[in-house]
Amino acid sequence: MISQSRTSSNAWCRHQCESDPRVQSVIRKIEEVTNIPYGHSESFQILRYEPGQFYRVHHDMGPRQVELSCGPRILTFFLYLSDVEEGGETHFPQIGVKVKPRKGSAVLWPSTYDHNPMQQDPRTHHEAMAVKKGIKFAANSWIHLYDFQKSNLWGCTGSFDYI
Q: Residues 65-70: contacts with CB within 8 Å, 24+ apart?
């Protein structure tokens, strides 16, 4: 069955991938920009969008995430790993912004309010618009309020395949 909301394919950057020196360099840069240690981050989700593929409007922070010991996703650091000939923009409809994929660039956005990191910021609903020509490679880095990796190690995130 094909999803009506998301048609991209994905993989997770764990273990050997995370220890690669190039990935470690990216991790350090994200830590520098956000001033948040990598322990608060989920492993990179690597995305591939072929022509016609998309991800409809969604939000990275779900209300039930406040119940997790690591807290909700507070930031998304989205990395573009390829240029796209046409389409594939990241669109934020509530604020009227579209970001064209450009290899080596990134977008950082909040999923929650600064004054209340347990409350979703609705302005950052977003979508991956359909790729029209070319292939889009990208990576999500979701950053939680508290230490995700320790919570996940103890089975407190709902994701048991991380170890």
A: 65/144, 66/118, 68/144, 68/151, 68/156, 68/157, 68/158, 69/146, 69/151, 69/154, 69/156, 69/157, 70/40, 70/144, 70/145, 70/146, 70/147, 70/148, 70/150, 70/151, 70/152, 70/156, 70/157
